[in-house]
Structures are given as structure tokens and as C-alpha cells.
Amino acid sequence: MKTPHSSKPPRPNPQQAGEAEVGATERIAKRMARAGLCSRREAEAWILAGRVVVNGKKLDTPAHVVGPGDRIEVDGAPLPANERTRLWLLNKRSGHVTTNRDPEGRTTIFEKLPADLPRVLSIGRLDINTEGLLLLTNDGGLARALELPSTGWLRRYRVRAHGSVTQEQLDKLKDGIAVDGVLYGSIEAELERQQGSNVWLTFAMREGKNREVKNVLGALNLDVNRLIRISYGPFQLGDLANGEVREVRGRTLRDQLGAKLIAVSGANFDTPETPAAQKVAQPKGRKAPVLGRDGKPRKKIDPLSRLDTKPRQAEKPSGKGAGKKAVKSAGGRNSSQNAAKPARAGKPGGKPNRGPNADRRR
């Protein structure tokens, strides 16, 4: 006779529990990343260096699971509370590297971000010469979820390449293509126009492997010389200026992610924004005011006023001896000298003298 199975419920997987429920047990590196302190990889290095203490015990391995009631300290200071999940859109400039530190000393995207932004992570990467839309977030769980191919978000690019191609050749990319032993999935490609020796294309894909666009077009004898990402899932580049950063409103972000992605990523929309975060956040379509040295907003100057070539009116001096002082106009000439010049003598009747040959020229 078989013994009945125990009625004790099975022990849940800590990693799955951490992803399924916000605030449940999760890896210590993941908790540190959610708090906006560092990335998961950096957290693991900090743990191995002995900088992290949980409930009074120094950790020596990143394979440690923590719960909501655990007391975590990093370098002797309590771990900050989890921040509210936020997302920014960045129009990346060409020539900037998508990394925190570059061993070659090249300019990174994080060096050019506004100083009032919190610590952020990039969702995916763009090559140094690729420009366009790049998503930034303060939530490591959201960044990881949106990078996965299983998320299935479509990424669109505008491509300029040297060479020529037909729409029939591009249509074959819908079935996928293998280049140098790497299999690339279905790609939607459309020929926009031929411009001299270059062609403009529109690419759409869901995988986003390393150098995918350049490798695929290279197989079609096309040399990419400009690559611009114009959308990532539901988020569009739109009118975002080159190098500009704009935050997505919390309600919009929650609607675009949906319940499934929020659950998988563990995004946190319940924590209220801190006063500093509220100050950084700007409504869509508005920019933060530019402050002067005195800390007050600068007055807006009409750019067309700088093209005005009319001399400015000089202010009348006041006080004793003011009439004797020469007042300079905007052109730099002495206005008192101009006023002292006598008018040219004219003929009777008040008409000016136009010279002896004036009547002949009529």
C-alpha cells in the first residue's frame, strides 16, 4: 500500500516568488538594484568585497535571499527604500557609448545626462555610431524584462546605406536570414527611396541582436552609414531633440506596460515619488526652466530680437552736467557730435541744395 503524499505545500522557488510578487523574497543583488544603489553585477561585487551586511551578518556570497523584514546595510548605512519605477526617453547622439565606464576614454551617455536625474540604467544598448531612441529606467527589474526577446516589443529603425537593393530582396528577410552562422529572426524591411548612391530603409525587428541591422544589410551588399532608432515598443522618438531627455508619466508607463509586464518585472508604482523626483518630473511637452546664477529662472529671449539691426535708443543721462556729457548710441558713435553738425544750407523756400547740376538731372 502506497503511503499518502504529505499535505505540506511545496516550497516555492525564491527567484520565482521574487518576480511574481513585489516585496516577496528575492536575491540580495536584485533588492539592491531595485533600491537604485547599483546594478546587479555591481551588487555582487560589493557583496564579495564584504560591504553588505544582512541582519548583522556580513555576506560572503551573492546567493542569498532576503525578505521584506530583513535589515540590510551597505557600507554601514541602511539600504534605501525601493524607489518608484520611472522611465525616461533619450535621443542618443552619435559618437556616445552606452556604458557606465569606457576603458578607451570615450564619451558615455551617462556623462551627458542632466545632473538632477537619479541613477538610471539603459534598457538595451545602441552602438557608438547608432543614434535615436534609448530607454532609461531606475528599475533594474524593468530593464531586464524589456530587454528579453520574449517580451516581443517591436523596434523600428531608419537606415541609410551605401549601395542598392530591391523591395523583393528585402521581403525575403521576413523568413529570417543566417549570417556567418548567426540566425536572425523575421525582419520587416521597406525601401523608402534611392538618394544618389545611398538608399533609405525602414527596419522593424523584435530580437535586437548585436549589430543585427549592419550584419543583415552587409549580407545584401549594403554598407550602413547612418542608423537611427525611431521606436521601442509603444514609445516613439517623435520630436525629441538630439541629446534631450524626457520622462514618461507614471500613468502612461503603467498603461503601456500592462499587468503582465508589471508582474514579471516587479515594477513598483505604489511608492510615492520623493520631493526630488517630483521636481525632476516634467509634464509631456514641457521642459524644466533654465536657472541663472542667482537660482532664479532666466527670462525668455525672443531669438528674432537678436536679428534686429536698428540702433537702440540711448537713455538720457540725469544729474548735474548731464547735458554736457556725450551719450553713445548702440552703434558706438557719439550722439552729441551728430547733433552738433549744422544742417546744409538750402535755397529759399526751405528746399535743400542738391548741387549745381540738380536741375539737369531731372
Description of the structure:
The chain is of the alpha+beta class and 362 residues long. Among the domains are: 14-78, RNA-binding S4 domain (Structural Genomics Hypothetical 15.5 Kd Protein In mrcA-pckA Intergenic Region, Chain A, Roll), CATH 3.10.290.10; 87-265, Pseudouridine synthase. It is built from 9 helices and 17 strands. The chain has helices spanning 14-20, 28-34, 40-48, 140-147, 167-171, 212-219, 250-265, 275-280, 335-340, and strands at residues 26-27, 52-54, 57-58, 65-66, 72-74, 77-78, 87-92, 121-123, 130-137, 155-162, 177-179, 182-184, 188-195, 198-205, 223-232, 235-236, 245-248. Strands 7, 8, 9, 10, 13, 14, 15, 16 and 17 form a 9-stranded mixed β-sheet that branches. It has a 4-stranded antiparallel β-sheet with strand order 3-2-5-6, with no helix packed on it. It has a two-stranded antiparallel sheet with strand order 1-4. Helix 2 (28-34) crosses helix 3. The longest helix has 16 residues, at 250-265.
